[in-house]
Structures are given as structure tokens and as C-alpha cells.
Amino acid sequence: MNIINDAREFYKEGYEFSISKAKGFQKVAEHSALENEFGIACSLNVLAAEEALKASFLVVKHNFPDAKLNDYDKIFKDHKIKHKHLMLLVQMQNELRSKMHITLPIMKQMLDIATMFANDKNDPLYISIVEDYNFIKNESERKLNVAEIEAWIETANEEKNNGFYLGLDFKNNKWIKPPFTKDKFEKERIYTADIIQTVINVNEVYERLERNKHL
């Protein structure tokens, strides 16, 4: 049991560190954009999304330490694998949001019944029902432009390199100078924020399930 608990704490620490890194990259990206360094800002957005992807794996490992996750080792070093799983993460969240939207009326009925018969609004069970309903409502209403995010992920690694480094088109003997703009940064900042929030919400689901076991 202690080995399992130690493993869970290890992965929890990794999750907290990686999600903090993701937020930090995005914060620095915003500061870079204020200095009109939009190439660097866009590249930092990609790094933030990659760190959030690591955090999503660590959330699962924290809750299921013995789980054998495909590509777990590779997400720490292989950019193609990271972006493949970023795509899967966005698609998973889109499906989950749809299912939450379906369950929302049921949760509303549960909340109405609990409110009607609750003798104590500070009762942990009642508070849990209220919080679960609000969480599902907020998540089901969160809008993700999945097609745009997927298109961004498709070219994100190349754009990250172009934003950080000077490139050379050897075939045509020309410098590679992609047009990074404020509008491009603002769109991609939203994509990154959505991905970070998705991972935070996955962690929140697991935490709620754990708390509700003890009610």
C-alpha cells in the first residue's frame, strides 16, 4: 500500500509541476506579445500546450499508478508523439463535453430534489451535488473550436521552431520569415488556454470522484 501511495504522490507532484510550467509558458507568452515579439509568443503557446499534455498523462498515472499508458515515455521527448496525443486530448474533451451536456438535465433534477429536501445547506452531500452540477454546467457550455485547434496542432511544431529560430530554405536560398501577428497570437492563446483548462478539468473530475467516495 505504501508503494502505491508513494507512486501516487510522485505522479501528483509531476502533474502539479507540469501544469504550473504550462501556465508559466503562457504567462511569458503574453508578456512577449506585449513587446510585439509575436513569433516567440506563439512558440511559447505551443510549449504551454505540450506541457499541459504531459500533465494529462500524469493525472491518469496519479489515479492509476499501475496503468500502462501508450507512449508515456515518449511524451517527454518526442514532439510528434506529443502533438498526436494533443489531438486526441482535444477530441476526447469534445466528446466528454457532449456527454456532459446530455447529463445536465438529470443533474438539474437531482439538484432541485436535493434543494427541496435539504435540511442543512451546509451538508457535505448537498454541497457536493451543487458543486457537481455547476462543474458539469460550466464544462458543457465551454465552447471549443475543435477544427481550428486541430489545424493548429497539425503545424504547431514547425511553427514553434519558426517562431524561436531563424530558418533557411536551402532549396531556394531564402530566409524563412513566417508572418507572426497579434491576431495569430490571440487565437492560439485561446487554443492553449482551452487545452490547459481541459487538463485541469480532467484532474477535477478525478478529485470529485475521490471526494464523493467518502460522502
Can you describe this structure?
- The chain starts with a helix and ends with a helix.
- The protein contains 6 helices and 2 strands.
- About 30% of the residues are buried.
- It has one domain.
- It is about 75% helix and about 5% strand.
- The protein has a two-stranded antiparallel ribbon with strand order 1-2.
- With about 220 residues, it is mainly α.
- Helix 1 runs antiparallel to helix 6, helix 2 crosses helix 3 and helix 2 packs across helix 5.
Relevant terms:
mainly alpha, two-stranded antiparallel sheet, single chain, about 75% helix, about 220 residues
Topology:
Blueprint: H1 2-34, H2 38-63, H3 79-117, H4 124-141, H5 146-164, E1 167-169, E2 174-176, H6 182-212
Helix pairs in contact: 1-2, 1-6, 2-3, 2-5, 2-6, 3-4, 3-5
Strand percent estimate: under 5%
Give Rg in angstroms: 20 Å
Overall mean pLDDT score? 87
Principal-axes geometry comes out as: elongated
Oligomer: single chain
- Count of strand segments: 2
Figure out the total of helices: 6
Distance between the termini: 23 Å
Low-confidence stretches: none
